[in-house]
Amino acid sequence: MPKIVGGSGPLDAKVVFVGEALGAEEERIGKPFVGASGELLTSIMHNSGLARETVYITNVIKERPIGNKIEQFIKFERGKVVKTQKYMDYEALLYEELSKTNANVYVAIGGVALYALARMDRITKRRGSILHGIAGIGYKKVIPIIHPASALRNYLFTHFIRFDMRRIVEESAFPEVRLPARHLHIEPTFIDVMAYLHSCSELPKIGFDIEVMNEEISCLSVARTPYDCMSIPFVWEGRDYFTVEQEAAIWRELAALLENPDILKVGHHITFDSTFVFMKYGIVFRSMKCTMVQSSICYPDFPKGLDFVTSICTKEPYYKDDGKKWFKFGGSQKEFAIYNAKDSAVCVESEAVLDAEVVRQDNTAAVERQTSIIPSLIYMQARGIKADKKGMDAEAIDNEEKVKALGIALNNLCGYPINPNSTKQLQEYFYIKKGIKPYVSRSTGNISVDAMALKRIGRKGYKEAGIIIEMRHLLKINSTYLEMDMDDDSRIRCSFNPVGTENGRLSSSKTIFGKGGNMQNLPPEMLRFLVADPGCFLYNIDLEQAENRIVAYIAPEPNMIDAFKRGVDIHKQTAGLIFGKDPADISDEEGSSSIGGGLHSERFWGKKSNHELDYDMGYRAFALICEISESEGKFIVDRFHSVYPGVRQYHAWIRAQLNKNRTIENCLGRKRLFTNRWGDDLYKEAYAFIPQSTVADIINERGLAYVMDNPLFWGIEILNNVHDSLVVQISYEKVPLQQHADALKLLVNSLQTPLTFRGQTFYIPADIAVGRSLNKKLMKKIDMKGDVLQQLKELDI
Q1: pLDDT band at 596, cuts 50/70/90?
Q2: How many CB atoms lie within 10 A of CB 734?
Q3: 3-state class percentages of the chain: helix first, strand second, coil last, to nearest 5
Q4: DSSP assignment, residue 92?
Q5: pLDDT (0 to 100) of residue 625
Q6: Burial (Cβ within 10 Å: 0-12, 13-18, ≥19) of residue 504
């Protein structure tokens, strides 16, 4: 017979916690939540001002499931809930138990408890929401939280539970469900819309959100305050909502509102909304604020979606599934309009809460900097880059022929046809037929034949692995790049995300129309097909060895600094120090180093070390990435740190800073709060933060925003950003070459503005190359210390 354990605590408690089932410790001791997850829950409760002795705690399932598998009682699968009779018996027992309590708030700990108390699922989305309980508990107030057992596995969940526990303490003061009283104007008349928009024209700030369906704006919302918002429909139940004349009048009124620089427009991922409106209607947003930018800078480790921001900044219960369901299955148009209106309302409410947190963290400048690049992103997304479509098509055909030839060679080696993308076939061939010990993915824990596994297999002498890697590479080049779907004007476009990484770098992806792709990780094979428009030059402005340089100066590392000051090739210097040779004698020729089977040059290993070892990569990981033996990897890593001891000192300084308040500040004043679990992974993230975020902030503030805001850059088009570089286009037919030279000098001077950090003052040089395409082999480097105009006049490209 299983051991049955009931609840504990005072029945008149203001807060009742309901968990899922017993664990091993709970079964042994005979009390709920006394194991590791119970200790974590108790700790968070106490830190939030809630004593465990004052609450009542119980579980839905009063026994320990065999093997801790809750599925023996209840399963959640594909929108269905499958309950056993035993579960229903325990649920009835729970309701009887809770009828003896009269708390102000009932806390559902985990998905099973959320279902039992509120008949809802998706705990990670609904966590923190203030909900109405079901009849079984007298419709009492319910707040779900993620189970502490999940937080023991995923440390970030600990912070989410803390956010929610503070809300639980607040809500324990009263029994009513007090949700935000929002006046949502739904199904407005034309007169209502015009009057509402006119009233917004006198406000300092509004919320804004669009909903796109079939590549058109189906509705949009405007919020005067967090509690007063209108959803303006253009399509209602498949039909136009307004006449053509009325819709045109509404868009004229919207244009006046959105282009007014005195009215702040607040939205979540407003880069997307403003780009779409610009591309459809030519309306240019003036004065914007993005809650996604704010939240990403305040809480870089946390989810970036509006649903999460809403959960920590407002008391609006989770509602985002309403919109997703409507898009997928249809339904009530009125409910969709309410969803649209709420998006604007919660954005305005969240903006004020996040603004206070931005000020508290002293990150106002960082938010302003990241927001200032949005106009540049809008332009780059709308403009795109011209592509040589014919050349891409021809290259794709050539790659197909190469893949066929490689496939024949692979099949000959294997003895039978094998699909290079079939996980099952490759596992059977290498791990069963060839008897190789299976490689397990560190990220998934599953047996793997991914690129890293194939590299390891190749190092054992299996040529098949190398062929498969090459085939996969060619197939990916074709499917992801050469055969990408682009617009009819043969321009490649993308969607830019201003908070692509935790360190301020942009990211990019396909447009909302499914065209284009990631423009920031283009392989060299693709760059030569990105070409200038007729009569134009493309300029690639690149910060020279930016991250290495920042590490050198802020560490500080004297040997690195000396090389940069003397203009020595830092990669040759590193190789020279590793191999005990004069940097001048370091060879650039492939095969000049015996390391790695003699495939690379001596300089290659200096470059690889500089790129990988500044952030404390271990020798095993270095060896794996570089496809060399661990003994060779250890030799290089040990030598690198012996000749550059300042790098280790930098790591120690970073750890000391983290120990103070988990916060690191970069060279431009951006502060990042590190909230993940202590350990090597967190330390490595922190080592990379200052160099990577400083480079991103320089490019953003002194590049993207500087060009867009400066009238001296008339005729200069920014087309792309790739982490530490910018691509700009200037017409040589319409813009005098003197203006080219002047603009390039201004931009370089801006990017090279000196930095001062930890007593060191330095700058990062900016290199410029010019060409008719982005093919690095054909672009001509410009010496910015020489006569730039004369160099441009002498171009033969």
Answers
A1: confident
A2: 10
A3: 50, 15, 35
A4: H
A5: 81
A6: buried
Looking at residue 531, the DSSP 8-state letter turns out to be B
Q: Are residues 394 and 338 part of one domain?
A: no
Q: Look at residues 24, 104, 107 and name the one whose alpha carbon lies nearest to residue 60.
A: 107
Q: In whole angstroms, what is the distance from residue 39 CA to residue 32 CA?
A: 11
Structural domain includes residue 707: yes
Q: How many domains does the chain have?
A: 4
Token reading at 524: 């060299």
Where helices occur in 545-703 by DSSP H, the ranges are 546-554, 558-566, 570-579, 602-613, 619-626, 630-643, 645-661, 680-699
Residues 331-362 as b or e (16 or more Cβ within 10 Å = b):
eebeebbbbbbbbbbbbbbbbebbbebbeebe
CATH classification at residue 128: 3.40.470.10
Tens digits of per-residue pLDDT, 223-253? 999 999 999 999 998 899 999 999 999 999 9
Count of CB atoms situated within 10 Å of the CB of 611: 15
Where does residue 627 rank: exposed (0-12), middle (13-18), buried (19+ CB within 10 A)? middle
Q: Which domain holds residue 347?
A: 183-360
Q: Give strand pairing partners of 76.
A: 81
Strand partners, 235: 240
- Note the pLDDT of residue 328: 64
Per the domain annotation, does 383 fall within a domain? no
Q: E strands, 483-585, where? A: 491-492, 495-497, 507-509, 536-543
pLDDT at residue 638, rounded to an integer? 92
pLDDT digit string, tens, across residues 264-321: 999 999 999 999 999 999 999 999 999 999 999 999 999 999 999 999 999 999 998 8
In a domain, 146, yes or no: yes
HEC-encoded secondary structure of 109-127: ECHHHHHHHHCCCCHHHHC
- Structure tokens of 364? 């106002």
pTM (2 decimals)? 0.91
* Per-residue DSSP letter, 436: P
- Contacting residues for 147 by C-beta, under 8 A, at least 6 apart: 19, 20, 37, 109, 110, 111, 123
| 197, two tokens | 């928009």
Among 45-49, 135-139, 587-591, 638-642, the minimum mean pLDDT is found in 587-591
Q: Which two tokens stand for residue 707?
A: 């060009």
Inter-residue contact 687 to 615 (CB < 8 Å): yes
- Amino acid letter at 186? I
CA dihedral 580, 585, 587, 591 (to 10 degrees): -60
